[in-house]
Amino acid sequence: MKSKSQNPKFTLITKHHKTIKGVNPDGSDDRYEIDESIIPYPIPRLLDNPSFTLVADSHSLLNEKDYNIVGSCNGLICLADSRRRRSTDTHIEYWFRFWNPATRKISQKMGYFRDSAYFGFNFGCDNSTGTFKVVASSDNGDHLPYEVRVFSLADNVWRNIESFPVIPNRGVFFNGALHYFTLHNGFQCNISQCSNMNKVTAEHFVILSLDLGTETYHQYRLPRGFDELPSQEPAVGVLGDCLCFSSSYKETEFIIWQMKKFGDDESWTQFLKIRYHDLQLDYDFKEIRFVPLFLSKDGDTLVLYSNSSHERDAIIYNWRDNRVERTRVTVHKTSIDDGTYNFVDWYSAKGFVESLISIC
Q1: Which of 43, 150, 193, 296 is deepest in the core (most CB within 10 A)?
Q2: Would the CA dihedral through 338, 46, 97, 90 be positive or negative?
């Protein structure tokens, strides 16, 4: 991999919703234009000045590309598309493209396949060879097996690998592997839809990892301090160049653990325990989910996402002096205000490092 920038950034996903009024007063013939854009933004600049304005140019708009975001890795963003040729068609067509915002280049369509099943996608890189890979898994609801296919740019073909041993959740890429927070194989159900949750305890949860080099699975135990089920689903992510796990505790605190030695679930270390009171919340947070997005280079400042309807922007928290700020981001789809409702989708913000890599 060459020419990788050391300036860390977020990929900020902005949403653009515009209502085009019809002639009927009840709005029954209103039309809606919905668009998204991806704007890499320097994290140091965000921390220095949390209030700023973003303008999405035509290059960053996804409707210009007609794709959905799968993920980013080493400077490339993977965009996937799926559609039926006709509304009566029983099969779905899938393909994807790679986009490099730094070079403003986008690849041709790749990985086409057609199937009657719904598939979800994840994107990462085999660190041993530098090969980018796309992982497609069939969505069978609460039923195993989940068929898994891997597309490698080294050979430009899909291959079937061993099916998921458990039902996966949303995947996170780190250190050459995809990581999923899930229930171990004693419970064949999706976390968000499991009918047996009354029988589930904290010990039933694991992190499932798919190594993109060996294309094999590993299961890791969660931190020993995670001993009770929270009201909101915990999160797996990346902080401080470590795999991290975060969860609420007794509805009064938010705890973050780091896996200090990757692959060793005995190395989980509690990094932060944040009292909700210290985040200066003026609303009921018992049903709110918090997700850590980024940790500053000095380890003092944390950027958090909250799914509360009261928090449109992100929370910036300096844990050493308990200083709290809210971002104030003004978003425009164009330089002219045309009535579009614009905002940042912080939940989808990911770390991003620019690169001159090209596969076009």
Answers
A1: 43
A2: negative
Q: Radius of gyration of the chain from Cα atoms? A: 21
Separation between Cα atoms, residue 287 and residue 304, nearest integer Å: 16
How many residues are recorded in the chain?
A: 360
pLDDT score recorded for residue 67: 73
* DSSP 8-state secondary structure symbol assigned to residue 121: E
Distance of CA 333 to the CA centre of its chain: 22
The CA distance from 189 to 77, in Å, is 30
pLDDT tens profile 12-67: 888 888 888 888 887 777 777 778 888 888 888 999 999 999 888 777 877 655 67
Ranges of H-type helices in the chain:
43-48
Vertex 79: Cα angle to 53 and 131 (nearest 5): 115
pLDDT in the model for residue 38 = 86
Q: How far apart are CA 77 and CA 107, in angstroms?
A: 11
Q: Count CB-CB contacts under 10 A for residue 58.
A: 10
Question: Tell me: the pLDDT tens digits for 341-354?
Answer: 888 888 888 888 88
What architecture is domain 4-355?
Answer: 7 Propeller (2.130)
Taking the C-alpha atoms of residue 243 and residue 257, their distance in angstroms, rounded to an integer, is: 9
**Structure tokens, 90:** 């029983």
- Whole-angstrom distance between the N-terminal and C-terminal Cα of the chain? 15
Could you tell me whether strands 253-259 and 268-275 are parallel, antiparallel, or unpaired per DSSP bridges? antiparallel
pLDDT in tens, 63-122: 655 678 888 898 899 999 888 888 778 899 999 999 888 888 889 999 999 998 889 899
Contacts of 145 (CB under 8 A, 6+ apart): 163, 164
Give the tokens for residue 333. Answer: 């789809």
pLDDT given at position 186: 54
Please tell me what DSSP assigns to residue 314. Answer: -
Specify the pTM: 0.87
Closest CA to 49 of 350, 325, 335, 305: 325
The residue type at 11: T
